[in-house]
Design goal:
CATH architecture: 3-Layer(aba) Sandwich
Distance between the termini: 21 Å
Shape: globular
Order of helices and strands: HEHEEHHEEHEEH
Strand content: 25-35%
CATH class: Alpha Beta
Length: about 200
């Protein structure tokens, strides 16, 4: 089910994501010592249940990186890597997927990506937004989202989902990016971006 956001509003959210992607690509390039591309071809604002469905089957096994956000806006950031994407990304990082090193590496990549988006959002809206250290967990998608919400937010009605792709050399890895603000958070963000 789609929400009633205009193309202009969704374009503004997509632009924030694109700026965050550029920052993330630079940070990851510095970490890996080679060129990295991060792109966000699409951004959607959906009811939370629909946004989770958009990421994949709630019963599918994934690795999630959860970052709590505080300050002027309470929110959660969730990055989701399917097993195949986790293997591809860990291979690029020179670690074994599923190992402690693999989980740590995915957590660090998720932290860089998530914090890059959060920083871009804060810079463009003038809001003071501070991320907490990431938590990395492998579980069913629905369980990760439920646990994260119970631990982090009172409730939320709308989530932003960003289709994202990470490219290193000729290898591409997709990941799901979900931004879940507290109630009325999307409205607040759009107002701060001048498209409320």
């Amino acid at each position: 089910m789609a929400t009633n956001y205009s193309d202009l509003q969704l374009d503004a959210l997509r632009e924030v994501a694109n700026i965050g992607s550029g920052n993330a690509a630079t940070a990851l390039s510095n970490l890996l010592g080679r060129p990295i591309g991060v792109s966000v071809p699409d951004a959607k604002a959906l009811p939370l249940a629909d946004a989770v469905d958009e990421l994949g089957d709630p019963e599918s096994f994934v690795t999630g990186v959860v970052i709590a956000v505080g300050g002027d806006l309470d929110a959660l950031v969730l990055l989701v890597f399917t097993p195949a994407e986790a293997v591809a990304l860990c291979r690029l990082l020179g670690v074994e997927a599923g190992s402690d090193w693999g989980l740590s590496a995915l957590g660090e990549v998720g932290n860089i990506l998530g914090c890059s988006y959060i920083t871009a959002l804060g810079a463009l809206t003038g809001m003071s937004i501070a991320p907490s250290p990431p938590e990395t967990v492998s579980d069913m998608l629905g369980a990760i989202v439920s646990t994260a919400l119970v631990a982090g937010l009172d409730s939320s009605d709308i989530a932003l989902i960003l289709d994202s792709k990470l490219k290193v050399g000729g290898t591409e890895s997709a990941f799901g990016f979900l931004f879940i603000p507290a109630v009325n958070g999307v409205t607040e963000l759009l107002g701060r971006l001048g498209v409320g």
